[in-house]
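EI: anyone free to look at a 233-residue chain?
SC: sure, send it
EI:
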Amino acid sequence: MRYVRFILLLSTQLLFSQDLKQTMYGEIFRQDSSLKDRLYIQKEFQVGNFKNGTFQHIFYNNQNEVKAFETVEIEESKIKNYDFSIADLGIEASAKELENNVLLTKIINGKIEQKDIELKGDLVVGPLLPQYILENLNKIKNNEKLFFYIPYFDLLTLIKMEISKVENNNNLTIEMRLSNPLLSFLLPPVKMILSDTGKIVKIDGPTILPDPNKPNSKKTVYTEIIYKYGDFK
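SC: here you go
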């Protein structure tokens, strides 16, 4: 756990050492709790842009303690470095986008494991997903599927994902699922409601964060997430 605490400390220093501005506020509720059982608060901070910039998602419990974070540094539209940590699960990992591959790293009980994986498409990590959707909004509206890869650190591999539009009379709604039909059957999709401008305003589905009531459990938790955007002071 000392490695996770060390990276959390570095993440906090990054937050206060750069001109990062908060641009998003989210509340993560337990699914089917009528938005009453709040599990976490999510905040986004950023500096620069999606060609050259830094984006950080920090997850707090209801006591305002940092419980997880994602930080991605982008250089010339490539992921220079992506750090990921969930304190209660002892997860600490990173990804670096190289020429035609991705270097994945994870640390478990102080042991470092790395693997170089060939990249066959777009690499997308948490803080970059909203922008990826915005950049491909017209394709989504035209019922084209999006295909991309995300890191799966447990097995040090990349997983192919897909996003598609689903029918909804009131809002533009999309689903994100595993592209592999068998695996997709085992894990329900994540449903996202978009605003008129293409921003994610609500997410329904499984989360990688643990249940705060059972912080050491890896059992999947299903959530509803509500997002607000702006220049938060």
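EI: Residues 1-10 have pLDDT under 50 and may be disordered.
SC: 👍
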